[in-house]
Write a structure and sequence with these properties.
Length: 197
Amino acid sequence: MTENILIALAGFALVSSITPGPNNLMLMASGANYGFRNTIPHMLGVGIGFVVMVALVGIGLVRVFDAWPVAHHILTWVSVAYLLWLAWRIAHSAAPGSADGTGRPMRFIEAAAFQWVNPKAWTMALNAITLYAPERNLASVLLVAAIFGAINLPSVSSWTLMGQQMRRVLSNPRRLQLFNWTMALLLVGSLAPVLMQ
């Protein structure tokens, strides 16, 4: 991979990792509701889970869609259903220490597994492999995954930090509820590109 292609890949990884999407919206909501430290497992699950996804897509998982196109449609509808459920959970999150007490940040394994039903993650992984590792040899696939890993984790962490910084403003239960509903609606809105295909 040439230096110019590496720079282009890093730019693609940064733009696709730091722009709004399901992961970033959920991390912002988690940072606001549970704080940065409690959201670390969620952030690590996103970062590591996505790197694993890129590597597996690159070394052959993409061929499943070539062989069985219906698998892509099934994945899309499972993704939509799961994101709607997550939006409902975010909308109904209670502040930490509230009487409800049912809310909690997403765990590492949940966040890592979420990558497999996240439409933006699939789009990012498929585009990264197609554009930057078209020959799909192991070295180039692992390089693409490593660059995404180096860029993705700091990018998603910035969304958690933004959410945490909003905690002071969101100390009022009404404002927190409004924020959670807004994040839930934005998460549902992030499905628009998927549903318009």
